[in-house]
Amino acid sequence: MPVKTIAVICGGKSPEHEISVRSAKNILAAIRRDRFQVLLIGIDRSGCWRLQEEAGLGRFIAESGPELAIIPGRAEGQLIRLDNQQPIAQPDAAFMIVHGPTGEDGVLQGLLRTIDLPFVGPDVLGSAVSMDKDVAKRLLRQAGVKVAQDIVLHSSTAASWSYEQVKAKLGSPVFVKPANMGSSVGVHKVSRADQFEAAITDAFSYDRKVLIEEMIEGREVECAVLGNERPEATEVGEIVTQEEYSFDAKYENPDTAKLLIPTKVKPEELPRLQAIALKAFRTLECEVMARVDMFLTPEGDIYVNEVNTLPGFTDISMYPQLWVAAGLSYPELIERLIELAVQRHQARKALKTSFRD
Asked: Are residues 12 and 92 in the same domain?
């Protein structure tokens, strides 16, 4: 197999910027250099694309390094260095690991489609609907998949709901979260009226739409899905923690959490969990990869919590570790994801772009 040039794209104008950089470091450490030449592109916190040196990659994308411009439509030389006006090597595919808004919500996917570059992760539609928890839940409900009851707030309707009204409809406690965010950013567990207003205000600082969700009593388990037309699902993993699994508990104090990979479930529950994960994956038009997070109640009911289309690849991330437990090594997983991205791109390229052809 000839050596391919892979653009690893990380960072982003998002609260999850640092997590993206951590994921990129793991990908860079695992990718096979005898098969892939790596082009590292960082998106700094102002949104500027910059060429990066692997050795200089820190916690954040520094606002240094050559800025890049994009010229769509060329077969070669679509990425231009602004310091010398010269094109850089044309990538064969992109492994983008930009978490959060503008990374997982279809925005970056649309840009890469515009420059005709294969990329890892779901396409524009799957990324957009999966990122918006409100829209995703509507589609899952329609498909017969159980999800938590919720109240959707916009800035114009937020004041019309008091905590007592919420409690009467959804019970207590409830979870308040931005509709388009990940890594537990802006998420609050609310069990008292005096917590409610602050939680709503904080969630609205990250998004223009906020969800209030009922609390589902049960274990939260995660399933990794891989594939295009015939996706496959792993066994399920579970995160056990002695405190609320907040952003800090995930990334700042990882010792507070224990990952069970795979975790123990009843023999009859595993195929049901896998089937629901695959159904959610297909319902939300996902391709290549996603992590499906579900609640398993003591009664055996399964609720889909969310579908994460660009799951983390940090040291504590569930998605790659689930596949390692299934027998697919980290380097093999990266290669398989790139293969799936290229296969999807080739299938789309085979479609007509003119009715006269």
From this structure: yes
Q: Pick the closest to residue 246 from 12, 15, 14, 9 (CA basis).
A: 15
Q: pLDDT per position in the chain (357 positions), as tens? A: 577 999 999 999 988 899 999 999 999 999 999 999 999 999 999 999 999 999 999 999 988 899 999 999 888 889 999 999 999 999 999 999 999 888 999 999 999 999 999 999 999 999 999 999 999 999 999 999 999 999 999 988 888 999 999 999 999 999 999 999 876 888 999 999 999 999 999 999 999 999 999 999 999 999 999 999 999 999 999 999 876 645 555 545 556 688 999 999 999 999 999 999 999 999 999 999 999 999 999 999 999 999 999 999 987 899 999 999 999 999 999 999 999 999 999 999 998 887 776
- Is residue 50 a contact partner of residue 44, using CB atoms and an 8 Å limit? yes
Domain range for 191: 149-214
Does one domain contain both 221 and 329? yes
Q: Which residues contact 274 (CB under 8 A, 6 or more apart)?
A: 223, 233, 234, 235, 236
Q: Is 294 a member of any domain?
A: yes
